[in-house]
Amino acid sequence: MAAESMPAWPRAQAPLFSSVRFADEGAPPLSERERELWREAGADLAGGITRTYMPRGPRRLHLQRRRARLQALVAQVRAGEHGGDAEWLLDHLRLLQAAEQESRSVLANRYQLPWVETAGTQQPRILLLAAAYFDRAGNRFAEIAFAEFADGFQTRSPLRVSEIWSLRAALQLAAIDRILAGPAGGWRELFDSIRALLEADWKNLFEWLSHVDRVLERDPAGAYACMTAESRDLYRQMVAGLAKRSRLSEIEIAGEVIRLASRAARGAAAGDAGLHPRALPGPR
Question: Is 127 exposed, middle or buried, given 0-12, 13-18 or 19+ CB atoms closer than 10 A?
Answer without folding.
Answer: buried
